[in-house]
Design brief:
The chain is α/β, with parallel strands linked by helices and 453 residues long. Helices cover 64% and strands 10% of the residues. It has three domains: 217 residues, Glycerol-3-phosphate (1)-acyltransferase; 106 residues, no CATH class; 109 residues, no CATH class. β3, α3 and β4 form a beta-alpha-beta unit. The longest helix is centred in the last third of the chain and has 40 residues.
C-alpha cells in the first residue's frame, strides 16, 4: 500500500499540474461505500487508473496485465499500488505462464484474490476493454469484470451488496500538457439484480452485466467511428467551437463534452440526409484551413481582426521580464519530459504517462538544485532563497499563459497586416468563413429538428 501512504499525494499534485482541469461529473458516485467494482474505458494507459485513484478516498486495487509484473522494478511498483495480475491469452508464454492451462490457473488465483478483497468491502478497478488504445472509441468489452463481480456475489449468496460503477474517461487533448479531462461517472449497477440470471446460466448473466456496463459507458463517452471522422470533428471544434457553443459555461467541461457528442452524432445523420452537400462542405472547410495555415493564421485571429479587438500591448510589454524569468528557470525541467517520452515510445497512449512520471522527477530535482545554488552562491539568506523557490512554479505557469497570449497576438497582427497589404485576400477568407458558419448553423438547425422529431 506504499502508493496510498506515500505516492498518492505526490501523484495528486502531479495530475493537477499536468492537467489544466480535472472534472468529475457525479463525484459522489466515486465515494460510494465498498464493496465496489469500478469499470472504466482505457484510452491512456496509466493515466486512467491514476485519475480514478486520486478521486476516490478509499484505496483501489487494480487489475493489470501480467506483463507489467515481469520487470522487478515494475513489479515492485505495481504491488505497492495494490495491483493484481491478469494473464491474457496473448500473454501465454511470458511472465512464467507457459500454457493456456497454467494461465487459467493463474487467473483463477487472481480472481480468488479479487473475491477476498471485495468480500472485505474493498474497491477494485478493471478496464474491460483489455487493452489501451488512444482513440475516442469504446472497443468490445471482455466479460472478466462481470465474471469477477458475479463470482464475488455468488460466494456470498448474492448478499454482499457489491455494485459496479462505470467510469467514462474523456480526454480533450490527451497528449498536450495543461489539457482537460472529464470523468463522467455512471449510476451504480447492483450485481445482486443478476442473481436469477446467474442461477440459470452464469455465462449469460456475465454477458448481460457486461452489456449493461457497455451501455453505461457509451452514454457517457465521446465516441467516433474512425480516425478520419474524429479528426474532422476535432478540426470543427477547434475552429468554430466557440460559435457552436456560444453559451459555454466556464464552470464545467460537460457542455464541451455534449458539443463533441452532438457533432459526432450529426456527421452520420448528414451522410444519410445530404451526402453530396456534406462532401462539398468538408472540401470547403479543408480549403479554408489550408488558407489559414498558408498565412499562419487561426480562425480566432481572423475573427478578432474582423471585430477589431486587440490584446493589451501594455500587459505584454510589462509581462515580458516575468515571462523571461519563468522560461529561464523552468525550461529544462519542462522540456525534458516531452523529449524523454518521444524517445521512449512510439505508442501515443504511453506518451502522457511517461511525461507525467518524468516530470515528477525533473521539476523537484531541478528546483532543488536551483534553490541550493542560489542559496550557496547568491543570497546566503534563507528568506530570499525561500522567495526564489516560491517564485519558480508561479512564474512557470505565468510563462505558459504569456506564451499563448503572445502567440495569439502575433496571429492577430499577421491578420491585420494581411488586411492592409492584401485586403482582397483577407475579404475572401472572411467570405469563406461566413459561408462555412452559415452552412454549419443550417446543418445544426436541421439536425436538432430531425432529432426532436
Amino acid at each position: 500500500m506504499l502508493f496510498y501512504t506515500v505516492m498518492k499525494p505526490l501523484v495528486q499534485v502531479a495530475l493537477r499540474v499536468f492537467f489544466r482541469r480535472i472534472e468529475v461529473r457525479h463525484p459522489e458516485r466515486m465515494q460510494l461505500p465498498g464493496p465496489l467494482l469500478l469499470a472504466g474505458n482505457h484510452p491512456n494507459t496509466l493515466m486512467d487508473p491514476l485519475l480514478s485513484a486520486v478521486n476516490r478516498r478509499q484505496p483501489i486495487a487494480f487489475l493489470a496485465k501480467s506483463t507489467f509484473f515481469q520487470n522487478p522494478v515494475l513489479r515492485a511498483i505495481m504491488r505497492s499500488g495494490n495491483s493484481i495480475p491478469i494473464y491474457r491469452a496473448q500473454d501465454t508464454g511470458v511472465g512464467g505462464v507457459a500454457t493456456p492451462e497454467a494461465r487459467a490457473a493463474q487467473n483463477e488465483a487472481s480472481f480468488g484474490r479479487c473475491y477476498d478483497y471485495l468480500g472485505e468491502g474493498g474497491t477494485i478497478m478493471i478496464f474491460p476493454e483489455g487493452t489501451s488504445v488512444s482513440e475516442r472509441r469504446l472497443r468490445p468489452l471482455k466479460t472478466g469484470a462481470a465474471r469477477i463481480a458475479l463470482g464475488a456475489e455468488a460466494r456470498h449468496d448474492f448478499k454482499l451488496g457489491l455494485q459496479v460503477v462505470p467510469v467514462a474517461v474523456n480526454y480533450f487533448d490527451p497528449l498536450r500538457f495543461r489539457s482537460d479531462v472529464l470523468l463522467n461517472v455512471a449510476p451504480p449497477i447492483r450485481v445482486a439484480d443478476y442473481a436469477a440470471a446467474y442461477a440459470r446460466d452464469p455465462d449469460e448473466a456475465a454477458d448481460q452485466l457486461t452489456e449493461a456496463i457497455r451501455v453505461a459507458l457509451e452514454r457517457r463517452l465521446v465516441i467516433s467511428r474512425d480516425a478520419a471522422e474524429d479528426a474532422f470533428v476535432q478540426q470543427i471544434e477547434r475552429t468554430f467551437g466557440d460559435h457552436l457553443n456560444p453559451d459555454d459555461d466556464p464552470d464545467t467541461l460537460y457542455d464541451n463534452f455534449q458539443l463533441s457528442r452532438t457533432l459526432l452524432q450529426a456527421v452520420p445523420w448528414a451522410e444519410q440526409a445530404f451526402p453530396e452537400r456534406l462532401a462539398a462542405a468538408r472540401a470547403r472547410f479543408e480549403t479554408y484551413l489550408g488558407e489559414l495555415h498558408r498565412h499562419r493564421l487561426s480562425d480566432e485571429a481572423l475573427d478578432s481582426q474582423r471585430r477589431g479587438s486587440t490584446a493589451s500591448l501594455l500587459n505584454l510589454v510589462l509581462g515580458a521580464p516575468v515571462w523571461l524569468y519563468g522560461v529561464l528557470n523552468n525550461y529544462l525541467p519542462y522540456i525534458l519530459p516531452s523529449a524523454v517520452a518521444k524517445r521512449a515510445t512510439k505508442d501515443v497512449e504511453f506518451v502522457a504517462p511517461i511525461m507525467l512520471v518524468v516530470g515528477m522527477l525533473t521539476f523537484p530535482l531541478a528546483y532543488a538544485l536551483q534553490i541550493a545554488a542560489v542559496q550557496h552562491w547568491l543570497t546566503h539568506d534563507w528568506r530570499l532563497t525561500l522567495l526564489y523557490g516560491l517564485s519558480l512554479p508561479v512564474t512557470g505557469f505565468y510563462a505558459l499563459g504569456y506564451w499563448r497570449t503572445l502567440s495569439a497576438r502575433l496571429q492577430r497582427l499577421r491578420a491585420a497586416r494581411l488586411f492592409r497589404r492584401e485586403p482582397a485576400v483577407g475579404q475572401a477568407l472572411l467570405q469563406q468563413r461566413a459561408a462555412l458558419m452559415a452552412e454549419l448553423q443550417e446543418a445544426r438547425t436541421s439536425y436538432l429538428a430531425a432529432r426532436a422529431g
